[in-house]
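Technical annex, item 7. During the second reporting period the consortium partners agreed on a shared format for inverse folding records so that results from different sites could be compared directly. Each record opens with the tokenized structure and is followed by the designed sequence. A conforming record, contributed by the partner at site C, is shown below for reference.
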């Protein structure tokens, strides 16, 4: 059981820290969607959160989630949504996408609800008629040759009428709501309207076929603008028929008699086109789905599929889709097979250290080119096809070059798959050999003293998003801030107990606003400062009440911005809001002996307990799960473990102060490696206390007894 709990730390998304009255095993789920579903039809059920007594209860911060999985454990539903009714009940809806037996896994605060998982039998869709509306005529609500139909996010239905030269809008049950348009060629008039769609701003877009134009109306039917006129120039149209809207809001028009598909901006500016003689005979409609453009060609009685550059697909099998807005149409000069990628990160990488390469987009002639709408992507996969890197990022240099960076998280051979507009770049996939990390010392700064830039027993260390390094000094009773190369920038604080003064400052962290949070240990409080060191506020005070502290040490900031304080002498971990309001706590006598630091990673809280020479792991509610380590000097053993951090590869680093080293573990507590030993030479330590990570993956360690900060690669 202990091993199973350990294994769970490796999985799951970023969690939150909070205490809730709701109990997952008491909570209940009811509804048809827990036992049966039909492909493509919304299935529903209701989850009710309950307390330990089985009574319905509501906690605003409860997290209710649902997953619909097939027998192989893959997602088998789309649009899984949870609606909070703010009374302890939650409406869960989803659309299943495959037949057979599925499982609905329902959780409250990461724990499965009573009865979960539920077995759901999914049946094929029968497309049974359930409603019709309209009859021949011209009165409101009556129809004469209805042609185009579109639906907005409120499920209002807009219909174009060929013979009545108007647009009518109905509710989802067919109730007439409003109409606009009449026969003519003036603004707001229509002559044989065909295609219709709702734009991203809820405006209604109408293909005014016999006027050879497209008109835009507000959702209430007020005329806004138009574009197009009869002709064969790029901005002109000749009997436009179908239209649709792509993800960026651009408008796709089937310019039928010109045998073209044309793209226009939301304001009607011409962008690009494809098709023409020999490619399309009489295109009627074009929609975008994923990376494809799908066209119905009336005269050839077929469906044609093109890539987003308008190049015909080799596929001979065509499928009808519901349009989803998840990809943008791109017509680009850039050619993937001509584009090139270069850099060390394409052939080698080191676990947890940033690897980089540069992708250069090129045209058909092999010349560097830049298109603002190009999409450059990269994936780093292992031999099993799973992601083997974190923080894969693409930075657009706006000149046709893109800096790609990532952090490898496992050794061995990986593949870097690099794409331009969904097509693989020249040379892709690239084979990358990933090596273990050596934790080589590359820089140290600070020496014993009290002048700016000098250090006297540096304790806590923290890094902000600009890679500025903040350090607390126990003996100088101040905070100093350095650049990532160790250059002194500024300092604040002095000895005392007034606002902005310190007595033995310990833990330090940057919050979500880049403010600096300092644990003022011997003053039994926490102080908040601006990033420039201006005093903002404080909380705490000596004592054992919930809002008080007694020699606090470590501090960290959780995902929601709440502050985690280790109230060491009270043997507690306490959570406070960003403004210092007490929220909750866990630990106490029998649970923790002398906690030093607590960090949140994924859905767990990881605590260093100096008094028991071990690391303890708790769930998000503060319930104990498992521990690892014991007193000693062997691998995985500790002598007064201090502060913690998780590196870019997702590995836990522990400052083993009494053994003068830093140890590295996976998140189940398995020892991986260590670095450092007793001494004052480069890479050696005299009481390493705190550890932090720079944006490029390098590791900072506060070397307390040597009065310096060391940086390791």
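Designed sequence (site C submission):
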């Amino acid at each position: 059981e202990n091993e199973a709990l350990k294994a769970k730390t490796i999985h799951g998304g970023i969690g939150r820290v909070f205490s809730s009255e709701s109990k997952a095993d008491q909570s209940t789920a009811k509804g048809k969607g827990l036992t049966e579903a039909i492909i493509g039809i919304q299935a529903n059920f209701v989850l009710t959160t309950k307390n330990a007594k089985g009574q319905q209860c509501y906690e605003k911060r409860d997290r209710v989630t649902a997953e619909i999985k097939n027998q192989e454990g893959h997602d088998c539903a789309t649009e899984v949504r949870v609606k909070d009714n703010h009374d302890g009940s939650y409406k869960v809806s989803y659309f299943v996408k495959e037949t057979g037996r599925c499982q609905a896994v329902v959780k409250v605060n990461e724990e499965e609800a009573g009865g979960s998982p539920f077995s759901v039998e999914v049946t094929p869709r029968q497309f049974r008629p359930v409603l019709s509306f309209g009859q021949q005529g011209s009165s409101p609500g009556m129809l004469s040759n209805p042609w185009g139909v579109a639906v907005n996010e409120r499920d209002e239905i807009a219909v174009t009428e060929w013979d009545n030269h108007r647009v009518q809008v109905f509710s989802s049950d067919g109730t007439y709501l409003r109409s606009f348009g009449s026969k003519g060629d003036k603004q707001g008039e229509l002559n044989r309207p065909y295609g219709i769609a709702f734009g991203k701003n809820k405006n209604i877009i109408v293909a005014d076929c016999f006027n050879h134009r497209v008109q835009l109306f507000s959702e209430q039917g007020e005329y806004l603008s138009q574009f197009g006129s009869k002709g064969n120039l790029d901005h002109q149209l000749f009997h436009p028929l179908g239209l649709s809207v792509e993800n960026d809001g651009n408008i796709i028009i089937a310019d039928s008699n010109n045998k073209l598909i044309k793209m226009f901006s939301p304001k009607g500016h011409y962008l690009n086109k494809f098709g023409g003689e020999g490619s399309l005979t009489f295109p009627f409609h074009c929609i975008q789905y994923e990376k494809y453009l799908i066209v119905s060609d009336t005269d050839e009685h077929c469906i044609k599929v093109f890539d987003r550059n308008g190049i015909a697909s080799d596929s001979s099998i065509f499928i009808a889709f519901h349009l989803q807005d998840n990809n943008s149409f791109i017509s680009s000069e850039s050619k993937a097979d001509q584009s090139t990628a270069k850099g060390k990160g394409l052939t080698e990488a080191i676990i947890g250290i940033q690897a980089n390469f540069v992708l250069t987009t090129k045209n058909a002639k092999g010349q560097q080119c830049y298109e603002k709408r190009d999409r450059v992507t990269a994936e780093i996969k292992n031999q099993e096809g799973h992601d083997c890197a974190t923080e894969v990022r693409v930075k657009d240099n706006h000149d046709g070059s893109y800096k790609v960076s990532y952090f490898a998280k496992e050794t061995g051979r990986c593949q870097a798959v690099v794409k331009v507009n969904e097509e693989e770049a020249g040379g892709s996939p690239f084979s990358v050999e990933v090596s273990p990390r050596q934790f080589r010392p590359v820089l140290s700064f600070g020496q014993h003293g009290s002048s700016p830039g000098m250090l006297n027993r540096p304790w806590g260390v923290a890094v902000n998003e600009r890679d500025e390094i903040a350090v607390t000094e126990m003996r100088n009773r101040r905070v100093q801030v350095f650049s990532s190369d160790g250059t002194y920038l500024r300092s604040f604080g002095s000895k005392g107990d007034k606002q902005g003064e310190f007595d033995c400052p310990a833990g330090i962290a940057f919050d979500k606003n880049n403010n600096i949070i300092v644990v003022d240990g011997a003053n039994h409080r926490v102080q908040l400062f601006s990033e420039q060191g201006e005093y903002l506020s404080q909380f705490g005070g000596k004592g054992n009440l919930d809002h008080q502290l007694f020699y606090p040490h470590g501090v960290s900031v959780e995902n929601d911005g709440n502050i985690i304080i280790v109230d060491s002498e009270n043997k507690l971990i306490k959570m406070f809001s960003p403004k210092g309001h007490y929220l909750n706590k866990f630990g106490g006598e029998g649970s923790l002996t002398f906690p030093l630091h607590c960090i949140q990673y994924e859905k767990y809280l990881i605590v260093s307990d100096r008094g028991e020479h071990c690391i303890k792991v708790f769930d998000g509610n503060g319930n104990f799960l498992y521990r690892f380590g014991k007193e000693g000097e062997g691998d995985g053993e500790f002598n007064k473990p201090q502060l913690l951090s998780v590196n870019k590869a997702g590995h836990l680093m522990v400052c083993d102060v009494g053994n003068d080293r830093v140890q590295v573990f996976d998140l189940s507590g398995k020892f991986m490696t260590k670095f450092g030993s007793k001494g004052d030479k480069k890479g050696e330590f005299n009481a390493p206390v705190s550890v932090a990570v720079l944006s490029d993956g390098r590791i900072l360690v506060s070397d307390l007894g040597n009065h310096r900060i060391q940086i390791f690669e």
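Residues 1-18, 314-331 have pLDDT under 50 and may be disordered. The two ends are 37 Å apart (CA to CA). All partners now use this format for quarterly exchanges.
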